[in-house]
Predict the structure.
Amino acid sequence: MAYTIGLDYGTNSVRALLVDIADGRELASFVYEYPTGKNGIILDESDHNLARQNPADYLNGIGATIKGVLGKAKADKVFRAEDVIAIGVDTTGSTPLPVDKDGNALSMSDEFKNNPNAMAWLWKDHTSFAEAGEITELARKEKPEYLAKCGGVYSSEWFFSKLLHCLRIDEKVFEAAYSWVECCDFITGNLTGTQGSDALKRSRCAAGHKAMYNEDWGGLPAKDFLAKLDSRLGDLRDRLYDQTYAVDTLAGKLTADWADKLGLKEGIDVAVGAFDAHLGAVGSGIGPGKLVKILGTSSCDMLVSEPGQAVPDIEGICGIVDGSILPGCFGLEAGQSAVGDIFNWFVDYIEPGGKQAGSHQALTEKANKLRPGQSGLLALDWNNGNRTILVDQRLTGLLLGQTLHTKPEEIYRTLIEATAFGALTIINRFEEYGVKVNEVINCGGISEKNAMVMQIYADVCDRQMKISSSAQTCALGSCIAAAVVAGGHGSFADAQKAMCSVKETTFKPISANVSVYKKLYKLYLQLHDAFGRIDYNQSLHNVMKDLLEIKDNTNC
């Protein structure tokens, strides 16, 4: 018998999953909720763009979750802890954090322990929107190739935007940082004892999709390019990295200290880390032509090329990276900045009575009785900005058509439809550039819990929606990576064949609904282009821009 453990670092918690690599049987899982902040996130009421996390929560989560799954697995009479052969790691991203020369998080020092700028800058932190614009403008003028592989626009969710913003707002933290690491590299470095050395293996997924890394121009953006943004950012380039690794690479061996704490064998393999969405795609059985949608607080949409086959540059997506997602293929990522977060926002803040009277289940039951188009409502799904295809985190949501007779369930369904329209826009963008979507596999909490959402997605996209058999595909993907690295399977294809599957129940388009949604989607696109593209309607764009400036000035 051979088992692997997958560590899945999400937005609010970390989960460990223990899997039998022979057939993907899930023996046990354990979740550790981050204790710091609100639902694990450090927020600032005066700046809704800020979202940070405490790196100490990440490290404490290793012990809590792995010991938790090992404790649960004792109920399985066959399982033995010494049969665990490897650990895989996935995390949110881009979630970089400043570290000292030994690879320790600055926020874990006495000097910076209460400073959010010294903590991990969570993927959904959008405070660096201005810096993202600067990077985009400079690259368009001098290094357009830097943007070509990440959709043509650099995002405030990404690595260098956040570093530059830290430099602007907190020089003390920036100067104290010897380097910055992505969360996935921070975890693997700690498990293997390589966090403060040149032996730390940086994730190809993180570097390629969020830090403009590409071997065609020597890795990260050139020092002189970064120096034009700020000389100190250029100096930092020397303390970052020149090489990256895919998830089929050994990050190192589990240290004796961690082995003793966790109850595992010293020296078992630890795979190079990756993003949760990427390994979620692996755990869902991604392959060429298979679009994997991870539906959670946000959404991530992943595709991979045929092995070794290049793909064209695609405007507005989140990266085209050789060796990301599935080693040996080009990985393509897109997504929406809010999906479940939009539904939660409505239930928690808008619906009368909040969670007590307006639970998701109650609203879903009422909304499911409505027909497409019946409410007369239409919405834009930009409540947390637009990740794809406009790549503008300053954009905001919109609800059109409401009257004094509009009911909560009508709004709830309309918000779901808006996210489905956003999902279709992403699919269409891929196919406009010749990247075909032959199959759609969904995973994540929403696909597991809400059949109405899946039916709406099938009707809007006019495609069958499949659901991954595992409710924990990100952690399962990490288990698969660990199994391959440890030699338990000869390839990712072999591991996926043994460990992945989809549910028998699928959601097929209903022709009458498809017809109505095609009409509504045309209207959605008019709003999308009017409010999202400055070259389409300057006056509408200026209204949005001025509204945000008034809001910013009021909050100063």
